[in-house]
Amino acid sequence: MSQPVPGFVPSTAPPGRPEGQRKLLARCWKFLAQRWEWSALTILAVAPLVVPALGGALGGQVTTLFIYCILALGLNVMVGYTGLVHLGIAAFFGIGAYVMAILTVPMFPFQIGFLAAAVISVLVTAGVGLALGAPTLRLRGDYLAIVTLGFGEVAKVTLRNLEQITGGMKGLNPVPPPGAGVTVGGINLGQAFAIDPRWFYYLTLLLLAGVVVAMRRLEDSRLGRAWMAVREDELAASAMGISATRVKLSAFAMSSAVAGLAGCLYAASLSTTADPNAYDFNRSIMVLCAVILGGLGSIPGTLLGVALLVGFDTVLAPWADSWIQQMNINPTGSSLLSFSGWRLAIFGLALVLVMRYRPEGLVPSRRIAAELHSAEGQA
Amino acid sequence: MPMLSVRELEAGYGPIRALDGVSLEVDEGELVAIIGANGAGKTTLLMAISGVVPVRSGTVEFRGQSITGLPTHEIVRLGIGHAPEGRRIFPRLSVRENLQLGGFTQPDRAQLQRDIDEACGLFPVLGDRMAQMGGTLSGGEQQMLALARALVGRPKLLLLDEPSLGLAPLIVARIFEVIAALAARGIAVVLVEQNARAALKLADRGYVLETGRITLSGTGAQLANDRRVREAYLGEG
After folding, report:
1. Using an 8 Å Cβ cutoff, are A112 and A104 in contact?
2. Which of B77, B90, B100 is nearest residue A236 as measured by Cβ atoms?
3. Complex confidence, ipTM
4. Domain B1-79+156-166+187-237: which topology?
């Protein structure tokens, strides 16, 4: 690599670029690839200070994006690490949101603080995950997929029909913002959260960073390796002394708990659970698609997948629509000329293209890391 | 008292009775070879001992404790390592992770690292391949990884299923060298092999398995010199 081959032009270094500059570029790239979390976190942490739009509706949209990132990382534990198909993650998202709401809305007598409510709803969703997992883990592949799919629908219908508790189609509201009634250093936290979306932006960013760190640690832990061993070869895993049942259950519980965390953030940030259809099959599939698109079992891949799919859906499509409206291109309001009218088609096309040309996902897990390491070994 | 004693073991798949009353014993530090034709039940025997295949009747005792019907992961924790047929390494995990999983039952990280280093001492090539995906290793390297992975778990008894299958003669020789070295370290080994000549040469004792029954047993040398064994399994006479 050190001697350029005559006639061969490496894509990263146009001819004539000095050697030193090329090395610098390579080093920057390597730094970005290995320390992407820090680069991304820094940019996202500084962004609200320099982009005023994040103080408006855009801030709320990006917050939602972060919440979906947490949800997708939760799903990734089951689908990516452990290789169990899960088609009902939105149900756990919803349970987290509803438990959060039940514990905090004025309609119910509990009205406990945000933190306590969040802890309880994470524990409840983990418990529900265990309860669903225990009897169904003997099922494999398609059958487990059907059970999780069914559970997702049952959960949605239950939320819709249990009107005394869940408020039916109206959902539960208002979910108070975190720190309602708490004053720290002269700032009424609850009001601050309610007025400026940047508070929620930072709260969810912080929790997302926490989840990413936790997932990183898990990947390199006994438990994480056990998940992957079960995914690769269950028989060989049991020959290592791994109890496949217990390991799968723990993946189920972990996925559910993280999805529950995302759910309670969702309810708190919107100050409502919204109607139960917000937690339906389409939602599960969108998150699953994001994980697959980005790369199963890959943290950066999952985040990128969410940024592309959900970001497209919640940030780019509304923005493009309002732009089209402003430009008066679409006076009849035809859905053929609106961007969001095409979103499912674009989703589908993107997935087909990724599966055709990059079946391991945009940022595949491990393989990249291994390649970087072997490059280090040669240097 | 033998380390492992199997009595009247029966196991099978659906209507097929793969093991039809097998009894055998393995003493501490002993290398026992099991030879037999394809479909004789060799692999089923190992899988029944380690609990992968359910036992229909009969008993398996390990160090005086009945392990009949225990789940595989508990049997492994008692000190029986199983390197299953076809290597069964984790293809999309790195060599290091494969080895770490071999020591899954070892909670102490530092001790686990020492065990990994020790296992890699037997197969230095693995040390150079630590970050590589298991699935990208050559067949011989995969077999070495499978053996090393089983050793990281510090088994007292190691069940080896066809470790020489599909490997080049030079690598087979290296694998057998290591197996011999294990016995010298006091690890008891049950070796299932198609390569009967090499297995019997190495083994303290051997059993011949035919359609689910033990038909012959004796020391390695006795079996290697037995007329029936020579005709049926060593390709002589």
Report:
1. yes
2. B90
3. 0.91
4. Rossmann fold (3.40.50)
